[in-house]
Amino acid sequence: MSKLSRYSPLLYGDSIETKRQEIKEYFHNTFDLFEKVFEVLKDDDVFYKKSEITRHPMIFYFGHTATFYINKLMAMKVISQRINPSYESIFAVGVDEMSWDDMENARSNWPEVTDVRAYRNRVRELVDELITTIPLSLPITQKSAMWIILMGIEHERIHIETSLVLHRQMPIELVKETVDFPICTKSSKAPMNELVEIKGCDIHLGVEKPSHALYGWDNEYGAFNQDIPDFKASKYLVSNGEFMEFVLDGGYENKELWSDEGKEFLELTGVKHPPFWIFKDGVYKYRTLALEIEMPDDWPVEVNALEAEAFCRYKENKSGVSYTLPSEVEYRAIYNQAQIKDIPDFHESRANLDFYHYASSCPVNEFDFHGIYDVVGNVWQWSRTPIRPFDGFKVHEAYDDFSVPTFDEKHALILGSSWASSGNLITKHSRYAFRRHFYQNAGFRYVVTNTKDEEVADIYESDELVSQYCEFQYGDTHFGVENFAKSTAAIASKYAINRGKALDLGCATGRATFELAKTFDEVEGIDFSVRFVQVGAKLKSDSYVAFSTLEEGSLATNKKVTISELGYDSLKEKVSFWQGDACNLKPNFTSYDLIMATNLIDRLYNPRLFLDTIDERLNKDGILMITSPYTWQESSTKKEFWLGGFSDESGKEVKTIESLQTVLGDKFELIHREDLEFVIKETARKYQHTISEVSIWKKK
């Protein structure tokens, strides 16, 4: 077994105490390995540097994986108290807007590295205690509290690899060699690549929940079948030596080789060669994690998908043979033909993965799998397949922003794992995807194939609850009740005194955010669920919303609404969408003239905390608008935190509006109340007809 890493624990076993110990060892190994990755940085000052402009400073990632445990344990009510609410806000991840040049401006006032280390130690102690004490039965299922801890561990495993990429992109003088990450020292002339016959077969992708032995992300579950014909695949991954011809022959300058997305990438970045090549004194050198070395011609080239696609077109132009990247199912056919066993039956010595051999790539002809090399390990392999949900996919409620934002046809699957992959990343059924311009420890192999790929014109939202809200906000009106999003935005605009910046909190699928932009200069929409907030983000980026409305049984109607039909063309640049926790928002969400909290207050885990601090985010004369039907439920809010809907110790009935007046009275003036109806369609013959109370509060 690797000195640095260990395999993911199995979900089943005979002894609960033994399983607790296995998970505890896996947790500490992961936590330790992640911190070793940050020992590569030369000193603490480097934590406040960015490896490139579209990413956060390193301090963010150092804190992020620890706060992830707390935020997910809080969300799933495994724990009820935070360790550091400030850290668990600033180190949480918001949703960017799906373009490579879009990242929050760097925030100053990051915590001291020593303080973040101390915070990580407190998280380590808490999770260690939870592994020992939380209820556990075997096998571990997605309903188990231990599943959330495994989720945190596997999430940190991902950031072990992605952080190494970021550190490798740092200027060489800001990193240092460490004994834990030795590079491969073998290199020679690149082997001549050739095509290998791969037998066609019926491919079955996806796993079933009850029978799966290992932790898996939600995108792994479900089923997909495709019968593919015979095809050919390159024997080796494309090496630096093989890719050099493309560079020297002007491949980066020949725009005919590049897709429209690739041309845009070239224009924005001006790149002329792969990211870890360094042109110095007339020759190309190579950047490892902490060293510049002579170009290892026989190591795999690391590029993004756009560069890989351009190389395939270049090779096609030279040979007359149609080359492309493999699809997900073709990769599985290669995997099956290579007779690879899944974890834990696969031994790390057979491939360059899990830090077993090196902390770098190695020659592409070192690890043979029955005539085809590096089927797993060395570097990830870009595919031509956009990640899509399998039939039967269901989002995991604890982490609905893991897979769903990638189901946009813009994220391509990477296959096979790399030298820095571990845990779930090296399992047979793992599915990871990145936007095609992103760099990871990823290269490619090419295929010659007649396999027909599925074409998807419009992506229809099929999540039942999200589709209901799409219909609610963008669909037809019912029973003479006006569109609720439009009505709330109109009321808010009527009572707003200043109209600079507004916050649509609990924005769901984003209709009211756009409506507010008719009267405000800038509007930010925030929702706890990325499944919802991505709809508004898609309307902004892709200019349409497509969704399926359930009619009867499994019968549904597809609908599509464009931004032009809604009259929002001129409003796109005024709106932005983010994921956030209303009770623990990041500090940059501030200076609003209006905050509209829509049907939110009775769904918060701590509504009093929200009310006690919301005034800090409003400007002078700012307006807070609260709408709610006051449907308090213990599944959302512990009864001790309800603001109404109960009798107190004296037997007096407590109403929510009275509690709002008590809590907000010192800081706000109640200036208006009214009832507002809304209707949510469930099926063609079933609707929810609800009345919210609207209360308007002016900051004193």
TrEMBL record:
Record bears the keyword Transcription: no
DinB-like domain residues: 27-162
Keywords assigned by UniProt, alphabetized: Iron, Oxidoreductase
Domain Methyltransferase: 501-638
Pathway linked to the protein: Amino-acid biosynthesis; ergothioneine biosynthesis
NCBIfam families, sorted: ovoA_Cterm, ovoA_Nterm
Sulfatase-modifying factor enzyme-like domain boundaries: 193-447
Gene Ontology MF, one: formylglycine-generating oxidase activity
Superkingdom in the source lineage: Bacteria
InterPro entries to which the protein is assigned, alphabetical: CTDL_fold (IPR016187), DinB-like (IPR024775), Methyltranfer_dom (IPR025714), OvoA_Cterm (IPR027625), OvoA_Nterm (IPR027577), SAM-dependent_MTases_sf (IPR029063), Sulfatase_Mod_Factor_Kinase (IPR051043), SUMF_dom (IPR005532)
Name of the protein this chain belongs to: 5-histidylcysteine sulfoxide synthase
CDD domains, per database record: AdoMet_MTases
